[in-house]
Amino acid sequence: MESSSENLPPIASLSPSVISFLNYTFQPTHDLLNLCDSNRLVSELETQCSHLSQLLSDLMQRLDASLVSYSSFSDRIGASFNKSHSELEDLKFKLSPFASTSDSRGEKIVAQELAALAKEVARVEMVRKYAETALKLDSLVGEVEDAVSSVMSKNFNKYSIAQSPEELLVSAIDSLKFIEDVLASVTKAHPQWVRLISAADQRVDRALATLRPQAIADHRALIALLGWPPPLSTLSSSNLDTRRPYEMSNPLSELRGEFKKKYCESFTALCSLQELQQSRKSRQLQGYSGDVALHQPLWAIEELVNPLSLASHHHFKSWLKKPEFIFALVYKLIRDYIDSIDELLQPLVDEAMLKGYSCREEWISAMITSLTTYLAKEIFPSYVAQLNEESVTDVQQSRLAWLHLIDLMISFDKRIHDLVSHSGILVSVEDYSLLQRISSLSVFADRPDWLDMWAEIELGSILDILKPEMEDERNWTTKTHGAVPFLGSEDYKSPGISSLFLRHVSSVIDRCRSLPTLFLRSRFIRSVGAPIIQALLNSLLTKCLEAEGLTALADDDALTRVLTSINCARHLESVLKEWCEDVFFLEMGLAPDDESGKPFTENSLFTGVSEGVGNGVFDDEIQKMEEFRKEWIDKITNVVLRGFDSQIRGYLKNRKQWQEKLEEGWTVTPSFVVAMDYLQGKMSIIELGLNGIDFAAVWRNLARGIDRVIYTGILTNNAKFSRGGIERFGGDMDVLFGVFRTWCLRPEGFFPHVSEGLKLLKMEENHLQGLFNQGEEWMKNNGIRHFSVAEAEKMARCRVFL
User: Which domain of life is it from (predicted)?
Assistant: First the structure.
């Protein structure tokens, strides 16, 4: 050893790089004693020298190519200037004969030559700028390619310490950003230089395709060296309970000194690289119509989430039958690390000028994306397979397990939304991209067939619950049996069954609110809510048909059943219309349908469901309810009119009574009293059992029908009216008007034919002569508007004057 040390050169003669190399290679003192491995060291040094020689050769070739390119451009520019110089000499020669003259021809030639010269000078200037820009870009891209090669060579040259890998990466990214700034300015100033920009972009893309995987690999190795992910082996179902706080180790909070500096530099470099990629994409897509989604997950956050997710999957596999533990673990990981990630990493994201990114938001989004990926690959396929089992018991259990999983997902999303709101992240109801990224139910966005399966299971479960309720006759009365009536049921005299159905539809709507997209919400409600309403409508129709089939609605009990069904339909219709006016439903109704592809315009926002535009979620159901009510209101009206017609038939056929006075002691015709008694009895039942809105429609329809019956049966039946007969007819009509005066102030207006006919009959003979002389004008002046001239003249001839 002494002889060896004597042969060593003095330390003062060694360069600093050699001293650093020796210090790095022989760090412990015992390495000096282990010189038997010198051949390996010499071999590694020779390999490095060979690699550096190859890099030097490549650089020389690239320099030669650049010099040739520069020489070519210089020759072209020189030729352009020589041409311009010769053209200027020619112009000087041509202008000399006209120097002392001022004729118009000379001025014209001068103007033409000057314009051509200016155009040529501009062309030469453009060529010069193009050549300078091309040379500048070629030089810059060449430097970037060298920097990328240096970054890549760090994997082979582990003894080089001139620059750290992080410094080389930052230098390469800075060069790429400078090139991007140049390309952006060229694109703005000279958009016609498409080929030059495209050529530079292709070379930069090749450099980025090499740099990004290497940067991610280096960052991945660094976080593994720092002890990430934290160990999850101590976790169990007992310490996942949020009521028992269990502190997990947090390597990010424990970073100190050099390790923290290296991690922050690597994180910032990766964010800067992503910002560069985003800027390039924004520039390349500039000018294209339509919205382009430029937002990508934060790469550095994904590198934290991916190993943590892989470590969690070990626990997930043992919890396939206990999915509540899966959601509890994911929530715990999100909650425990979100503050430290925000405090440490958010300033680094801001430093990298990466706009529109929140570390809290990206952490939650990446964790939930990992969860939904596992749900889509492992959980849901197993649940779908269980549903295909032949055993009825197994299928029933699978349906319950499916609904339990959905309940867990909805509960998990609510907890995440609470965490997001308490974390200071602003989530707008219109920001569906963010809602989708922080919702576990976004698993249905890529698999709408699973959404259909959920809807089918949900619908079957609800109908199984409602089936015995529909068979219970107590639910078809207005008396409540323990259940709280739904809003509006008392106003519409609706039976309890309507509140039961609306409560279940409301629960379906509440469950679908957690779905992150409008299309999924609309599809789920149409698949579950609409069939539930249709089931009730079918039951209402069945009950009405049974009542009609038994007694043709002549029986009071059958009539009451129909009235109850109409009230139920009215209650449902009013609630559905109220729901459809809410913003939640308006958005779903106006959103484009993926199947039809029909977009909506701004004008659609000002059209309501009542206008029949067809843009509401429950439009079809509302329309069916309206049709059902109108149909059975018309049937009730016709039943009452048929009964009234049978009661008043004798009164109508007795035409002699209109030439006679009433017997003493009578103020109304006895046969008319019988008909009025029937009418009042039916109207009392209908008024008692029917809601106010539909009852108004019934009595208006009845008034219109009775008006037509009396008009055709008496006034146009060629009956002769004396003065006493007119008083008799007027007294009977006063009784009729009195029945309807309970529901309106001026019932005569709802009996236009009877009122105007009675008015015409009460006129004196000389006054009636004006009808025959003036016709329509006379009728208009006397307020007769519902008869033709012929009909009025016919009634006037029936008047007997003594």
Answer: Eukaryota
